[in-house]
UniProtKB/TrEMBL annotation, chain A:
It is a peripheral membrane protein. The keyword Repressor does not apply. NDH-1 shuttles electrons from NADH, via FMN and iron-sulfur (Fe-S) centers, to quinones in the respiratory chain. The immediate electron acceptor for the enzyme in this species is believed to be ubiquinone. Couples the redox reaction to proton translocation (for every two electrons transferred, four hydrogen ions are translocated across the cytoplasmic membrane), and thus conserves the redox energy in a proton gradient. Gene3D superfamilies: 3.30.70.3270. This is NADH-quinone oxidoreductase subunit I. The lineage of its organism: Bacteria, Bacillati, Actinomycetota, Actinomycetes, Streptosporangiales. Keywords: 4Fe-4S, Cell membrane, Iron, Iron-sulfur, Membrane, Metal-binding, NAD, Oxidoreductase, Quinone, Translocase, Ubiquinone. Binds 2 [4Fe-4S] clusters per subunit. Pfam families: Fer4_7. [4Fe-4S] cluster 1 binds at C54, C57, C60, C109. SUPFAM superfamilies: 4Fe-4S ferredoxins. Residues 44-74, 90-119 form the 4Fe-4S ferredoxin-type domain.
Length: 182, 454
């Protein structure tokens, strides 16, 4: 019956919409939290005594579909120890111009050394600064950690070290299911 | 008839007597007025671009630009600076003189038209009694129409001088569109002139003291709104620069300041036609009727300028609202609307208005006038009803035709030349039985449906 009013109804729709809530997030001023398992930039984790978890095995580099990771391993010595065990990652670089943040590197990592954070603001205005080096990627030292190189403090043997190391920092913080990102 | 002629002849004389107030200002008052108009137009353009984007944004459930300045209000200023700092490129092969002159030709007339717009009655400005209007002419209304038409030359010449098919098409469209809508626009003023008896803009405003022309001449007003959007090349009539079809239309080859000039011209044109609609139909600077009933001083001093501004802003909002609500129409629809609807309706309406005016001027008894008005109203209703009936019939006939076509298609998949392999052929072999025809699902009556294969 009132079909002829339809062209005019459109004006009502636009006028009404003017007073509805805007769903846009004002991004730089207002930041919404990401989903908990959001794939942000990477982080190289440490053991509870501050030694690095990375053993320089390059599995992440091999898993990377975008060829964004570059790793050079080095040998630990008794005088200069960076990680428990034989080897450590001497050079570790992630090129965020190539990285697609897919997380395959995290899946490949045998020691949970490489995980992802929720941080997504990694844009920069020069290419060089987008190649993140080991110093930038390493997790910051917590209170009772000590910057490597230093001897293993969580146990005499490697087996003891790994068994103890799993408990204090991570397990005490929150009991997470196996395989969950830290 | 003689009395009508006398009455008609007497009115303009009386109206022109009002023009005594003009042309006597000291030079510095004229300068102030001209400067204020110029600054007002420029600020209006900046604010309008801003408001355009902000309000459109809200209508689409987003914030508009909100980065630069408080609430993003300085965005168009930043855009203007950016535009003027860009490289001023002149493509090879263009007609240089015309190419450079075109944006100026587009922009200047838009400013000129505003000089005859009355913003207020006579006020005391620095001790000088002067009307709030730069100037007025016995033919001020024609000046408005003329400048609107001249402005289009800028667009046409710009499109022609660019030596580019897109620009040329844009310019051609603009000229055709403006010619079509200029007629309807001029006709919508005719009724106003018949009622005001004058072509001076100040006289037209004063003639609306009892009641605004937007009320008594509603059809003229509505048609003027349509034509004013058509004249300014705004959505839904912005075919001259239809991004979907013509890249940038007539301004495809323009950049930097010259592009800015076109941009400026478009928005100043909007300001001007909105001001014209306020002057001719919405009672200019007169206070809105209910207000004057309990506030006698609403039309004194500087107050009218405020009423004018409010009405003006209302019209500007209408521009944005239409842009946000109506999609761009096709070019043939544009022409159809202009020539087949607006102009004939306008002609009939003017005839009716003239008829009633003559009756009133001749001193016909109120009963006769009422009967004539009623007769016209009844005729309008009858015509509308007949039109609706015809449209309904046409729709029904088309639906029946489609139904029949679909039926034929369903019965014979090859109907209408649609290439379909035969259900069985010798080379198909006997081991594979021929597949029976698959029918498309039955279509709803009104929709044309593709019949896919056998």
């Amino acid at each position: 019956m009132l079909d002829w009013l339809n062209p005019v109804k459109g004006f009502g729709v636009t006028f009404h919409t003017m007073f509805t809530k805007v769903p846009t997030t004002n991004y730089p001023e207002v930041k919404r939290a990401t989903a908990p398992r959001f794939h942000g930039r990477h982080q190289l984790n440490r053991w509870a005594d501050g030694l690095e978890k990375c053993i320089g095995c390059e599995l992440c580099a091999w898993a990377c579909p975008a060829d964004a990771i570059y790793v050079e391993g080095g040998d630990n010595t008794e005088e200069e120890r960076y990680s428990p065990g034989e080897r450590y990652g001497r050079v570790y670089q992630i090129n965020y111009l190539r990285c697609i943040l897919c997380g395959l590197c995290v899946e490949a990592c045998p020691t949970r050394a490489l995980t992802m954070t929720n941080e997504y603001e990694i844009a920069a205005d020069e290419r060089e600064s987008l190649i993140w080096t080991k110093e930038q990627l390493l997790a910051p030292l917590l209170e009772d950690m000590e910057a490597p190189p230093h001897p293993m403090r969580l146990g005499e043997t490697e087996e003891e070290y790994y068994r103890n190391g799993a408990t204090p920092a991570e397990a005490a913080a929150a009991p997470r299911p196996e395989g969950e990102a830290q | 008839m003689t009395t009508t002629a006398q009455a008609g002849a007497a009115l303009p004389v009386a109206a022109e007597a009002q023009l005594d107030a003009f042309g006597t200002d000291p030079w510095w008052i004229t300068l102030i007025k001209a400067l204020v108009i110029f600054v007002f137009l420029m600020v209006c353009v900046l604010m309008m671009i801003m408001a355009d984007r902000k309000v459109m944004g809200r209508m689409q459930q987003r914030h508009g630009p909100n980065r630069f300045g408080p609430l993003g209000l300085l965005q168009s200023l930043a855009d203007g600076v950016k535009l003027s700092l860009k490289e001023d490129l002149i493509p090879r092969g263009v007609d240089r003189t015309v190419y450079i002159a075109a944006p100026v030709i587009a922009a200047v007339p838009a400013f000129i038209a505003f000089s005859v717009i009355p913003v207020g009655p006579e006020v005391n400005m620095f001790g000088v009694q002067t009307p709030l209007q730069l100037t007025d002419l016995p033919i001020a209304a024609l000046v408005v129409l003329a400048t609107a038409a001249v402005g289009v030359y800028g667009i046409v010449l710009g499109g022609w001088a660019s030596q580019s098919p897109y620009a040329l098409l844009g310019g051609l469209r603009a000229s055709a569109q403006v010619i079509s809508y200029e007629i309807a626009m001029g006709l919508s003023f005719v009724a106003v002139f018949m009622y005001s008896g004058t072509l001076t803009t100040s006289g037209i405003v004063e003639a609306q003291r009892p009641v605004w022309f937007a009320l008594i001449l509603l059809p003229s007003f509505l048609i003027y709104i349509v034509t004013m959007i058509g004249e300014t090349n705004r959505l839904p009539f912005d075919l001259a620069e239809g991004e979907g079809e013509l890249v940038g239309g007539f301004m495809t080859e323009y950049g930097s300041m010259k592009f800015t000039m076109f941009f400026l011209a478009e928005y100043v044109n909007m300001v001007t036609v909105a001001a014209v609609s306020v002057t001719f139909f919405l009672g200019g600077y007169l206070a809105p009727p209910p207000l004057t009933m309990f506030w006698a001083g609403a039309n004194d001093g500087w107050w009218p300028a405020l009423w004018w501004l409010l009405k003006f802003l209302l019209m500007m909002f209408l521009f944005i609202w239409v842009r946000g609500s109506v999609p761009r129409i096709r070019y043939d629809q544009l022409m159809q609307l202009g020539w087949k609807i607006l102009i004939p309706v306008q002609l009939v309406w003017i005839t009716a208005v003239a008829f009633v005016r003559i009756l009133v001027n001749e001193g016909a008894p109120a009963g006769v006038v009422a009967a004539v008005v009623g007769g016209f109203a009844a005729a309008t209703v009858v015509v509308l009803a007949a039109w609706a009936r015809a449209a309904r019939r046409k729709r029904r006939a088309e639906a029946a035709e489609r139904r029949e076509e679909l039926r034929l298609m369903r019965e014979d998949p090859a109907y209408g030349g649609f290439p379909v392999p035969p259900p069985s052929a010798p080379h198909y072999g006997s081991s594979v039985p021929a597949e029976g025809p698959r029918y498309a699902p039955r279509a709803p009556d009104d929709k044309r449906e593709e019949v896919t294969g056998a």
